[in-house]
Amino acid sequence: MTQTEPGALVRLRAANRRSVLRALAQDGACSRADLARRTGLSPTTISSLVRDLLSDGLLTQRPDCGTPHKGGSGRPPRMVALSMPAGGVAGIDIGHRHVRVAIADRTGTVLHEEERKIDADERGPRTLDVAVDLLDQSVASVDGFTLVGVGLCVPAPIDRRSARISTDIMPGWRGVVPVEDLASRINVPVMADNDANLGALAELHRGAGRGAHDFIYLKLASGLGAGLVIGRQVYKGSTGHAGEIGHVRVREHGAVCRCGNRGCLETEVSVPRLIELLQPAYDIALKPATVEQLERDGDPGVRRVLEEAGGAVGRVLADLCNTLNPSLVIIGGPFGRSAAIHRGLQAALDRYAQPDIAQAVDIVSGELGIEAQVRGAIDLAVAGVAHLRDAQL
Ligand SMILES: [Zn+2]
């Protein structure tokens, strides 16, 4: 009769603990049932591990979230999440036209936020000076706050091999490794990703994508990109460039795009382009908020332009839906709640996607709006810091 040596059982339990921590670092808060599915461990083992990790202070219980099981009692399952070591994190969202910084406590609750409008394309890596300035102001505004990690959001793909930002999209950032540049200035670990991926991550953890397994998050702003969530993971592609639908060619002899090609979707429907199209017909200077208000007031010109923009995006999205068969398309960015864009998108999906696929997909607004990127950066920092600690366990 063989007997399992006690050392082997201890090692197995330690490996199982790491599996649970890794799953939570990747996916954010999970129910125990989700953890069992993700790790392949039995529900009994998961219950026992979670009980130990809660009592060790490595996990916290979150009663406030989760989607009720279909056909269940209607009560959401209790979720567990990684707890952070003492101190908090920051999210830094660099857009083409802004820098937004938010600091958060160890549960991801935002404590303070700062924003400055700047041209990050023209200013290049000196944008990070502004980010550090806003970060210092934010940290100083909360008594006793200790920064232990930062998530950085940039408006262009980051190459997974070199960690450099794509200079096709941001030529002013040539040669910059944003993670290293920022980490050398602030002396804490920095994790980075692009705006569409982090918007998708935030909506997955705490927004419209909670409970969904496969969805497309669309960021329609100064640029246009998609974050692809497949099996509750953000899919980045082999080099980190997945989801660049803004650079699908839609007009043979169209305007020259910042990527160097002509007639990219982004040259037709970015927020600045839509405002440029509308502006000659109005006496007031148009901003995204003004356009939203005009749409709500029933302005026919605004409705027409936004509906056609939704149609142009939907034509490209229909092909992507045929490939991925998602259950949701989440629209983020300043016009994420535009009914006209939703109508245009829906009509294009109904016309161009395979009927069963079009029927299976719901088009919804992002719940986090323009906050999605900074919230995703915070989630990235929380997971990254927990992952570093996990590696030290
Ligand atoms: Zn392009």
Précis, in short:
Belongs to the ROK (NagC/XylR) family. This protein is α/β, with parallel strands linked by helices.
Provide the fold topology.
Blueprint: H1 6-27, E1 30-31, H2 32-39, H3 43-55, E2 59-62, E3 79-82, E4 88-94, E5 98-104, E6 110-117, H4 120-123, H5 127-141, E7 147-154, H6 178-186, E8 190-194, H7 195-206, E9 215-220, E10 224-230, E11 233-235, H8 265-269, H9 271-278, H10 288-296, H11 300-324, E12 328-332, H12 339-352, H13 355-360, E13 362-365, H14 372-392
Parallel strand pairs: 4-7, 7-8, 9-12, 12-13
Antiparallel strand pairs: 1-3, 2-3, 4-5, 5-6, 9-10, 10-11
Helix pairs in contact: 1-3, 1-14, 2-3, 7-14, 11-12
This protein binds zinc ion.
What does this structure look like?
It holds the Pfam family ROK. It comes from Luteipulveratus mongoliensis. This is ROK family transcriptional regulator. The structure is a single chain. This protein is α/β, with parallel strands linked by helices and 393 residues long. It has 3 domains: 8-66 and 74-82, Orthogonal Bundle (Arc Repressor Mutant, subunit A), CATH 1.10.10.10; 88-199 and 372-392, ATPase, nucleotide binding domain (Nucleotidyltransferase, domain 5), CATH 3.30.420.40; 208-366, 2-Layer Sandwich (Nucleotidyltransferase, domain 5), CATH 3.30.420. Helices cover 44% and strands 18% of the residues. The chain has 14 helices and 13 strands. The chain has helices spanning 6-27, 32-39, 43-55, 120-123, 127-141, 178-186, 195-206, 265-269, 271-278, 288-296, 300-324, 339-352, 355-360, 372-392, and strands at residues 30-31, 59-62, 79-82, 88-94, 98-104, 110-117, 147-154, 190-194, 215-220, 224-230, 233-235, 328-332, 362-365. The strands form 3 sheets. Strands 6-5-4-7-8 form a 5-stranded mixed beta sheet. A 5-stranded mixed beta sheet has the order 11-10-9-12-13, with helices on both faces. Strands 1-3-2 form a 3-stranded antiparallel beta sheet. Helix 1 (6-27) runs antiparallel to helix 14 (372-392), helix 7 (195-206) crosses helix 14 and helix 11 packs across helix 12 (339-352). The two termini are 34 Å apart. It binds zinc ion (ZN). Residues 247, 257, 259, 261, 264, 266 line the site of zinc ion.
